[in-house]
Design a protein that fits this description.
2 copies of one chain form a homodimer.
Chain A (H helix, E strand, L loop, with lengths): L1 E3 L8 H7 L3 E6 L3 H12 L1 H8 L3 E7 L3 H7 L11 H4 L6 E4 L7 H10 L3 E4 L2 H18 L2 E3 L10 H8 L5 E7 L2 H13 L3 H10 L8 H4 L2 H15 L9 E2 L7 H9 L2 E12 L2 E12 L11 E8 L3 E8 L3 H21 L8 H6 L12 E2 L1 E8 L4 H11 L4 E5 L8 E8 L2 E2 H11 L5 E10 L2
Parallel strand pairs in A: 2-3, 2-4, 4-5, 5-6, 8-10, 10-18
Antiparallel strand pairs in A: 7-9, 7-11, 9-10, 11-12, 13-17, 14-16, 14-18, 15-16
Helix pairs in contact in A: 2-3, 2-14, 6-7, 7-12, 9-10, 16-17
Chain lengths: 451, 451
């Protein structure tokens, strides 16, 4: 961050408006975030000019749902009745795409790019799946693309990764990037309830979508991980490169056992550079209660970044919500507005990594070395633990702690264990064999650990 | 953050070097941070170019201590034998000032600004005391000033505050910005030891200076608070505007009592906008153990930011250390290099606030409304608590919790209490009266609380 003035522009504030171009913004999609952006641009125009020195105006806003527009009470001059009034409008400098999903967002963005408009989007699915195509198109047309709001609402992880830590070789980036899952697991622990109840409350509070499938299955976290990976490691990856496991199989008792041993369970999105290859995975993870991420509660988000110069760093913020996400969209608009006024090559950066980075070797999930939490559902009879530990030993997995609290002779009871570090492929093999043992009554629950 | 290329610059990486100007850097001060910056610039030149698209070169480096230079093993071509080889050198684009303290750093920076050089500095004392003068001089000469490393080492709070949250009205910013104090208080709790022992260990580990006076007394935190206030609220303040209380009077038993009640004690730097006035204060503070800041251990730093759009946000990172601080200095160098290449008005931003902001009303410490932790050293005899609570009641201070664990008839024992919210001026008056009571044997310890 640097302050000051270019020597060509030794000017006063009264002169600034005359020199600076008004930047016109068109918004497509007036849902939660889009409505917040429209509101902020209309209400904060002069505040933004005072703080940032750029004049940004909402020119047109569109949503196919007329009721949404009405509810927002926007002035009629900014209401568009067709999206073409925005991406076909030569006066619109920046298209803000907030409809989400791949289609028709992709087509709209590509059209706007072809018309040399700049883009601000929060569309994580689109960037994860089609990032390479969109960035290449933007490069050819000279369009700038802002996407701070695509990962973690108000959490400025995109800017920090790309600008603040630009001289760092990043070795790992991992965090809580899905508010719904974090809320649900925090609630289960806090209210001592099952996942269904926690999810019901999350929906009632507007934290979870009515159909939270993408969140609970880890897909949303995977999209965000693809975007973070691109920035941290300079290579394009897509969801098919990521190992994904959701939170569905997590039971309240897992959370309780973990806490008794000094751990919390969080759904983490993890990108780690290890042994010359990149691990990309989303799964529930045990982290020590003393870890900062363990203090990230409810629907909040946080991302941990490890770099060769910075050591450990963390960015925390609201993961979702109207105004937090709108704040990130507006900061992108301001950044682009500054760039337009400066005729900037914004972030000529990363070019080489964008071009060469895709050759980066991806780590196979089977090669992962980590510690594990295991919960077996086994018949309570002599010799069970011995059968299980035999299989583990054969696969070179050693046990760190084991506990069996309930006793119910002849019935299935939980046997819970923490292992020392082991290979994922060995664990896979061991669990396959263990789950075939006659004493095992349900599929074994396995949760990976992070320090 | 936005990605892309200006349409005037549709270029390939192979052409980029021809178009872009090499940016030459001169470093004055090769201590911990300066040595790290020199090392990073020399070793990471091509990495930085690949990632950021700018070519940054270390041209000259100077330190008055010849032994330091020798120890670093810098190539002889970059070693300057007189600082004038740097600030008097027309080829140096950016002066990196890392000698610290007011003099002669101020004179060197002013000379460099007059020569239209850009500045990167980590000098919190200088910016806190002379920020207004330096920024005005820079404005007149067209110099850019980077100072990310002045607050919290690798923690990118300056950029985030100024760029990511630029559309937010900030209502509060507070955090742990002194690694020494945080380490000492964390250690006392962890090792169950007194402050002297904790400080000794901090010195042995190189975390505390040999003379840690500025840290322990809260002065260093105050300097950083002045800089954060400037960015968050757009007004220049100096240390004389800040209420300062260090950690010297904190005893191990205070930390233990606080923890028993679910609180941690942290030295916080706090800037809060309340009732149309700005509170600026540095003091030990009780925060709930469930607060994210409570998970910030050892010498780490973290800053909490509350804005009207973002809600709560936190930035966490290494507060000090060679490479973390060097990372921030280098990111400023890269930002300025990008600006030079773009002929940018970097952050024409905040102009109005810089000019008008100083009229912002500062809150009087006496008007603060907060909860308090109090530890009285009182003779163990009947009627003591009644005398104390009478004085509190007279001053409209009500008690939330009170405890007296030790009993030692006729001898001084601790009586510890948490109050409900009260006015600072009333608390001052009450404590003055209480400390005059014959049953009170030592000055009462008072620690403010934050939610």
């Amino acid at each position: 961050m640097c302050f000051g003035f270019d020597s060509d522009f030794d000017i006063r504030i009264s002169d600034l408006k005359k020199i600076m171009k008004n930047i016109n913004v068109g918004i497509i999609g007036l849902g939660t975030v889009g409505g917040g952006v429209a509101k902020a641009l209309l209400e904060k125009e002069s505040f933004i000019f005072e703080r940032s020195g750029v004049s940004v105006k909402l020119l047109k806003a569109y949503d196919k749902d007329k009721k949404k527009i009405k509810k927002l009470g926007l002035p009629s001059r900014v209401i568009a009745t067709d999206p073409v009034e925005i991406f076909g409008n030569t006066n619109v400098d920046i298209l803000v795409e907030l409809i989400g999903g791949i289609h028709p967002a992709q087509e709209m963005i590509m059209k706007a790019i072809q018309a040399s408009k700049h883009i601000v989007t929060a569309n994580k699915a689109l960037l994860a799946e089609q990032g390479e195509r969109i960035f290449n198109a933007a490069k050819n047309s000279g369009s700038l693309i802002g996407f701070e709001a695509s990962v973690g609402g108000a959490m400025p992880v995109i800017k920090v990764l790309h600008e603040s830590f630009s001289s760092n070789r990043i070795s790992a980036i991992y965090g809580i990037v899905n508010g719904t899952c974090n809320y649900v697991m925090h609630k289960m622990m806090e209210a001592n309830c099952g996942m269904a109840d926690a999810l019901k409350e999350a929906k009632a509070k507007g934290i979870a979508e009515q159909d939270p499938k993408l969140d609970v299955a880890g897909i949303d976290s995977c999209h965000k991980l693809c975007i973070l990976t691109m920035l941290a490691f300079g290579c394009f990856v897509t969801p098919k490169d990521v190992y994904i496991e959701g939170i569905k199989h997590i039971d309240l008792q897992d959370i309780v056992y973990a806490r008794n041993w000094g751990y919390d369970i969080k759904l983490l999105a993890i990108a780690k550079f290890d042994k010359c290859a990149l691990q990309l995975r989303v799964h529930p993870t045990l982290i020590p209660l003393s870890h900062l991420l363990s203090a990230v509660k409810n629907e909040d988000n946080a991302v941990f970044i490890k770099g060769d110069m910075i050591g450990d760093s963390m960015i925390y913020g609201k993961g979702a919500g109207r105004m937090p996400a709108a704040s990130s969209v507006v900061s992108d608009i301001i950044d682009i507005a500054k760039c337009i006024n400066r005729r900037a090559i914004n972030l000529a950066s990363s070019i080489k990594s964008w071009e060469s980075g895709c050759k980066m070797k991806l780590s196979r999930m089977g090669d992962l070395q980590t510690r594990y939490y295991l919960r077996f559902s086994a018949i309570d009879e002599p010799g069970v633990l011995s059968s299980i530990s035999n299989v583990l030993a054969k696969n070179k997995i050693s046990i760190a702690t084991v506990t069996q609290k309930q006793r119910n002779k002849g019935e299935p009871v939980p046997i819970v264990m923490l292992t020392h570090e082991a290979r994922e492929a060995s664990m896979e093999k061991a669990l396959k064999d263990i789950d075939k043992l006659p004493c095992i009554k349900k599929r074994t629950v396995r949760i990976r650990m992070e320090r």
